[in-house]
Structure formats: C-alpha cells, structure tokens
Design a protein that fits this description.
The chain is of the alpha/beta class. It has 14 helices and 16 strands. Bound molecules: zinc ion.
Length: about 450
C-alpha cells in the first residue's frame, strides 16, 4: 500500500543524521511535503508511540534520497548495445557515433519511453532528484513545436514522480567554429533569442513542487566564447545553476588549445565567472593548477565513474580535488547502469586501483561510507540548487527506506549499515522512495 508521509511523523529504526545512522529519530513532514521537524522519538518526546499520525518503520534505515547531478536520460536507449569492437578497439568518439545514431532515430514517443525508463530506474536506485542535462531538443520531423522533446522530458519525470532540475543546454557548434552536422542539428537552437524564449516558456510551465531550471553550455566545443559568457551571465542573473562538460577526452583539450590558446578549464577560468553555482562535469584530464584555481573560486566537480569507465575516459585526479576541499557530486550520465551505490563505490574503487591506497573519499572521521553519502546526497543538491540531500527541517521530504533485513544486509547494524549499503549492495535493499513526502516507488 502506498504510504503518504505528508502530515505524518515517521520513525524509522535508523535515520541518517548527516554522518551516521542514529536510532529513535522522529521526522515530521508537513502538508507541503517539506520536513518540519527532526527530533528525538523517545517516550518523553511529542512523537510518542500513541501519536495517531506517527508511522513506525521497523527494520528500515531512512536515508535522504540520492541526487543524480548529471544525466542524459534518452541514452538509456543504448542499453544493450553490443560492446563489440570489430576494428580492434573503441573510445569516447566511436561511442559518440553510436549515441548520435540513437539521437537521430528518436521520435517523441521513443524519446519519452527511454527517458521514463531511466527515471523509473533512478527511483528504484534511491535517486529522488535528477539533474537532466538536456540537449536533445528537436524531433527533426517538422513538428509544430520544435522544442517537443523539452515537454517530453518534463512529462517523463512528472509521470514517474522524480524531482527534476531541467538543465536546459545550449548547443550551437559541432566542433569549435564548425557548424552542426547530422544528429547535432537536433541539439542546436536556431538562435540565442529562440533559446531565451524557450527558457521563458519553460519557466512559466514548471511545477515548482518538483521541477526547476538550470542552464548549460554543452562544452567548449559546442559554443563560441561570446555565447559561453552570455549564458553564464544569464544563469547568474536568474540565480540558476550553470553546468558544462569539461575535459572528458584529450582531443577536446588539443582542439581548444589550438583555437583558444588554452585548454577548456583554463578557458573557462579566463572567460567566465566561476562560483559555487558552477558545476564542471568530468574534469578527467584537468591539470592541478587549473583545478586549484577552479576550486578556490568555488566551482563544483561532477564525476560519473560508470560512464567514465564505459567510455574509457580515464580517472580524474579525485584525491587532489578533495585535498583542495573541492565539492564533488555524482551523475549517472549515459545511464548504461543506474545505481547510486555503484557510482559512489567506483568513485572510491577507481582511485584505489590506480593508487594502491584505500580510503580516498572519507569524511572528517575517516568514514568512507559517510564521505560517499555526502557526495551522493548533499553535494548533488547543492549543485542543482535544491533544498534536499539532508534530513533537516526545511528540506523537501525526499527520502529512501532501506530494508536492513534484506539478505544482502543481514548481520549489519548501526554504523555497518552505511558501509554494507555502499560497498556490498546495488539497488536491491531499497524498499520505498518518497519525493516531497509522496511515495513514488516501492519494491
Ligand atoms: Zn554528460
């Protein structure tokens, strides 16, 4: 039976309180779907067991929903594409050919179907909010509304109940200084003004309870410098987050140096305002010098380990980013596999394998699980500008129940729950998921 938390007080056996799971914590959810109060659930508290509005969840650990800061939902349609390399090997650019073939083949129905499947799967992975980096705008079939995929992506999110920050992406050049070609024509706005009109239209039709906006330029190869500056300032003027892919593949760095005299990250540092509202996706090949300056100015870094592994991008310099106090979030990006725990685990495991050292991502007490959960929840919410990612008063009641009696978690209590979840489980122990206090998925 569906469990609506609005107007109720929920007492799970364990509740994530920021750095660990604690017992006897009551979480009161208001009628508006926001958390009203977090406090003790003992017999002397107002949340005692006789309260008819109280819901007990024995055998459950309550976690803030994971926040997926970077997704291209339609790429879920590449799931099952054979990983066969007839010419001997492949790389990011050969993968991109396959992705372009998919992009070119989609009609509004198939685009909606792939996106909806991706969002449903995210909920099953405990992801309650997604930053959808949306650049496939046009159906290419002469539709009356050229932005028909924008409506379809919002509808797919709304229909499954996931929170979405639509990161509306400007894409104007096929490579630096080159026109859009083939599938890329479905990405491109006809003009800057047309893109702005569409932003207005989207802003007016959003459901503010579960939908918000951000702005992206796809990458340095997809915009000229005046547009890059213009859209960064445009996002800042509206207090919207600004996202951009940065230095995922080495070729884009060489191309950028040849034209702009510096790599993509150095070009961003030179050309636009960097502050905590800016998130750079990947930073796989960014230099330490550039990363230090980017982090010092407050920029966030989004890593997507499963996609970065699948596409053979490489490992970013995560230990250095963390040493510099850089804020990191995660994304499921190409959605070949959708699992928050697996993304976070590989953020750590990738570095362990590379550096022959354990404990790269940790919190101030040395806990790897707590460090990864911070990346998976609070930091993602910050990147998307959402009041979510932590179980605290005022935040949206975006919550996940974990079944601690699941076979994968048996024998794990208290602090071992987080470690068991992050290092021993995929999506299986996730039993219920709420967005704004409304249950939108259960096992
Ligand atoms: Zn991406």
């Amino acid at each position: 039976m569906s469990m609506d938390l609005r107007g109720k007080t929920i007492v799970a056996e364990w509740t994530w309180t920021g750095s660990r799971f604690s017992r006897d914590v009551a979480v009161r959810v208001g009628a508006d779907g926001r958390i009203e109060l977090v406090g003790p659930a003992g017999p002397s508290s107002p949340h005692d067991a006789r309260d008819p509005q109280r819901i007990d969840l024995p055998g459950c650990a309550l976690l803030p929903g994971f926040v997926n800061a970077h997704s291209h939902a339609f790429q879920r349609g590449l799931r099952g594409t054979p990983q066969r390399f007839e010419s001997g090997s492949g790389d990011f650019w050969t993968w991109r050919h396959t992705m372009y073939r998919l992009a070119e083949s989609l009609a509004v129905d198939s685009f909606y179907t792939h996106s909806r499947r991706a969002f449903e799967e995210m909920l099953s992975a405990g992801i309650t909010a997604v930053g959808e980096f949306h650049y496939l705008h046009h159906a290419g079939d002469g539709s009356v509304d050229p932005w028909v995929f924008d409506d379809a992506i919002l509808a797919a999110a709304r229909d499954v109940g996931i929170r979405i920050c639509l990161i509306q992406c400007y894409y104007a050049t096929g490579a630096i200084g080159q026109p859009l070609q083939g599938a890329q024509k479905r990405f491109g706005p006809v003009s800057r003004d047309e893109f702005l009109r569409q932003m207005d239209r989207l802003a007016n039709k959003l459901d503010s309870r579960t939908q918000s906006l951000a702005v992206a330029c796809h990458s340095i190869r997809a915009v000229d410098l005046p547009d890059l500056k213009y859209f960064r300032d445009f996002a800042a003027a509206h207090n919207w987050p600004f996202h951009i892919h940065v230095e995922e593949a080495r070729k884009e760095i060489d191309d950028c140096v040849a034209v702009h005299g510096a790599g993509p990250m150095a070009t961003l540092l030179r050309e636009i305002r960097i502050d905590p509202r800016v998130t750079a996706i990947h930073c796989t090949h960014s230099t330490r010098q550039d990363l230090r300056e980017y982090i010092a100015r407050g920029g966030m870094v989004c890593l997507c380990p499963i996609t970065e592994g699948n596409l053979s991008d490489g490992f970013p310099d995560l230990p250095f980013i963390l040493e510099e106090d850089g804020a990191v979030c995660f994304g499921t990006d190409s959605n070949i596999r959708i699992s928050a725990t697996e993304e976070l685990r590989w953020m750590e495991f990738g570095q362990r394998a590379r550096r022959e050292t354990r404990g790269i991502v940790t919190d101030q007490h040395g806990s790897c699980a707590a460090g990864l959960i911070e990346i998976g929840t609070r930091n993602g919410a910050r990147s998307l500008g959402l009041s979510a990612g932590a179980i605290i008063a005022g935040n949206r009641a975006d919550l996940v129940a974990i079944d601690v009696n699941h076979a994968l978690m048996l024998g794990c209590e208290d602090d071992a729950i987080a470690d068991s979840l992050l290092f021993g489980c995929g999506n299986c122990p996730i039993s219920r998921v709420w967005v704004g206090g409304v249950e939108c998925w259960s096992r």
